[in-house]
Amino acid sequence: MSVESTESPVAEQEICVKCGICCDGTLFNHAELEPGEMSSGSLPKKIEQNYRKMGEKERFVLPCQYFEGKCTIYDQNRAIVCSAFRCQLLKDFSKGRITKYDADKTVLNALKFRNEIFELYKRIFGVDTKLSFRQLLTEIGKMPVPPAEQSKELALLKAQCNIYETLLIKNFKSIKTFKSMIDTTVEQ
Ligand code: SF4
Ligand code: SF4
What we know:
It is a single chain. The chain is mainly α. The protein has helices spanning 10-17, 45-49, 80-84, 88-94, 100-125, 133-142, 148-172, 175-182, and strands at residues 30-32, 51-54, 57-61. The protein has two domains: 10-86, no CATH class; 92-179, no CATH class. 50% of the residues lie in helices and 6% in strands. It has a three-stranded antiparallel sheet with strand order 1-3-2. A hairpin with a 2-residue loop joins strand 2 (51-54) and strand 3 (57-61). Helix 5 (100-125) packs antiparallel against helix 7 (148-172). The structure holds iron/sulfur cluster (SF4) (2 copies). Residues 15-16, 19-22, 27, 85-87, 89-90, 107, 172 line the site of one iron/sulfur cluster. One iron/sulfur cluster is lined by residues 23, 31, 64, 66-67, 71, 73, 78-79, 82.
């Protein structure tokens, strides 16, 4: 995630508190830090511990270690991106393009669908995964061809992940990103 606005109206917070998919590794693998934030020494310890410099970008790895169903340091000093980031869903809500009911429903459906994917993973491999959704995608991408009895279910899991990723992009990432998936002439 990256910084886009510093507004955080109460209704938006009510949507976010039920969601958290920008913190828990569902939407992103990392969050952007502002220049100098790391060197200022003001970042929470676990964010500092997960700091990564990637080219010119300074980031911290997600899932955030402060996320336990919700942000556990919400009232404390956090990275700038933590209070400034607003996903496409929030922007659509703030511009009146969707109602609060629909925004809540979109969040609920996103969490439900993700749970179904994790349940399917558990059914196939017989273990509960502790991975985030993005880590799960990476893991699935590295998997060798499974035994025949698993291959159909694994194909289903991959298909579910692809559909889920498309829904995340459509509902939570930028409209530009979504359009780029269906129109190759649009630059990301
Ligand atoms: S993904 Fe959007 S709605 Fe969910 S917590 Fe992040 S900013 Fe809030
Ligand atoms: S500190 Fe809180 S808001 Fe910031 S990434 Fe971690 S869980 Fe999310």
